[in-house]
């Protein structure tokens, strides 16, 4: 498969070809994912939950992400890798640059941070310094204690309008990709239509330009709890490579996510 770049991702959006993304944390799985043709891998701070066993993502450090980014890159030389900037590593533009630089040196192609318009200066500076940025709106887990739990976001008209404006601000600041997590499908569609950069959804319906799943959810081993928006692809395929292949195929054909996986 041809190497994925930000230009290729944008072209996929324009041509309506769906992007299939997965989280990855080590070389064995990143190699398998690359072999099956996953377009984008995310070294997510979800590792605080699925690797470290925490209630939330807040304990994850920039060093943790850098370490796992090195592991993922070692197994997948050609795949587009995004690395999460963890909680409190981008409170100001200078911190964002220093911490993002560590992740880029570890092998990332892009960094992801959570939040809306307030991130404008950080995103602008990162992009000026040569670091591509992915935004993240909706249920942004680093704010779980402000939300009062892992709850669907953007349900009121006011919140939906604010999120659309945030998405536009992120794009204007220079962001080249946007993750939308746990929002109503109609809002995800409105955001996807309102901006020209690709959107990658999780619990955001089928109208986003791509999908992402936490790899543990894809194989049904997320500590006894499978989120509504997720699907165990191992059940119907019986082995790991086939499960990943089925996930990619179902995302690209529009079969996943189905109506049972979305919020309205
Ligand atoms: O950390 C993570 O895995 C994420 C995805 C769920 C988008 O941010
Ligand atoms: Na994350």
TrEMBL record:
Q: In which pathway does it act?
A: Cofactor biosynthesis; (R)-pantothenate biosynthesis; (R)-pantoate from 3-methyl-2-oxobutanoate: step 1/2
The record's HAMAP family line, in alphabetical order, gives: PanB
- Where does the record place the catalytic residues? 181 (proton acceptor)
The record describes its quaternary structure and partners as:
Homodecamer; pentamer of dimers.
Q: Which cofactor does it need?
A: Mg(2+)
Q: Name one GO molecular function term.
A: 3-methyl-2-oxobutanoate hydroxymethyltransferase activity
Task: Give the domain of life.
Answer: Bacteria
Q: Which family does it belong to?
A: Belongs to the PanB family.
Sequence positions that bind Mg(2+): 45, 84, 114
Q: How is the cofactor bound?
A: Binds 1 Mg(2+) ion per subunit.
Task: Show the InterPro entries listed in the entry.
Answer: Pantoate_hydroxy_MeTrfase, Pyrv/PenolPyrv_kinase-like_dom, Pyrv_kinase-like_dom_sf
Reactions catalysed according to its record:
(6R)-5,10-methylene-5,6,7,8-tetrahydrofolate + 3-methyl-2-oxobutanoate + H2O = 2-dehydropantoate + (6S)-5,6,7,8-tetrahydrofolate
Enzyme Commission (EC) number: 2.1.2.11
Residues reported in the UniProt entry to bind 3-methyl-2-oxobutanoate: 45-46, 84, 112
User: What is the name of this protein?
Assistant: 3-methyl-2-oxobutanoate hydroxymethyltransferase
Where in or outside the cell it occurs: the entry states: Cytoplasm
For this protein, the record's CDD domains field holds:
KPHMT-like
Supply the alphabetized keyword list: Cytoplasm, Magnesium, Metal-binding, Pantothenate biosynthesis, Transferase
The question of whether Magnesium is a record keyword is answered with yes
Concerning Gene3D superfamilies, the annotation shows: Phosphoenolpyruvate-binding domains
Relate the protein's function as given in its record: Catalyzes the reversible reaction in which hydroxymethyl group from 5,10-methylenetetrahydrofolate is transferred onto alpha-ketoisovalerate to form ketopantoate.
Give me the gene this protein comes from. panB
């Amino acid at each position: 498969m041809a190497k994925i770049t930000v230009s290729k991702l944008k072209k996929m959006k324009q041509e309506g070809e769906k992007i299939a993304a997965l989280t990855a944390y080590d070389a064995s799985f990143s190699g398998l994912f690359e072999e099956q043709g996953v377009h984008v891998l995310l070294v997510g701070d979800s590792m605080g939950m699925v690797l470290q066993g925490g209630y939330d993502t807040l304990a994850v450090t920039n060093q943790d992400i850098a370490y796992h980014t090195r592991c993922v890159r070692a197994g997948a030389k050609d795949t587009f890798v995004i690395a999460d900037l963890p909680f409190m590593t981008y409170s100001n533009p200078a911190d964002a640059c220093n911490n993002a630089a560590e992740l880029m040196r570890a092998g990332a192609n892009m960094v992801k941070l959570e939040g809306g318009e307030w991130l404008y200066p950080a995103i602008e500076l990162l992009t000026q310094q040569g670091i591509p940025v992915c935004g993240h709106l909706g249920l942004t887990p680093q704010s779980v204690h402000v939300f009062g739990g892992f709850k669907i976001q953007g349900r009121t008209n006011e919140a939906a309008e604010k999120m659309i404006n945030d998405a536009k601000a992120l794009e204007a600041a220079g962001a080249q990709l946007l993750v939308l997590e746990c929002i109503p499908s109609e809002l995800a569609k409105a955001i996807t239509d309102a901006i020209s950069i690709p959107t990658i959804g999780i619990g955001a319906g089928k109208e986003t330009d791509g999908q992402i799943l936490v790899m543990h959810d894809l194989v049904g081993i997320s500590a006894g709890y499978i989120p509504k928006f997720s699907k165990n692809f191992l059940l119907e395929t019986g082995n790991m490579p086939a499960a990943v292949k089925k996930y990619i195929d179902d995302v690209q054909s529009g079969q996943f996510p189905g109506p049972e996986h979305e919020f309205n």
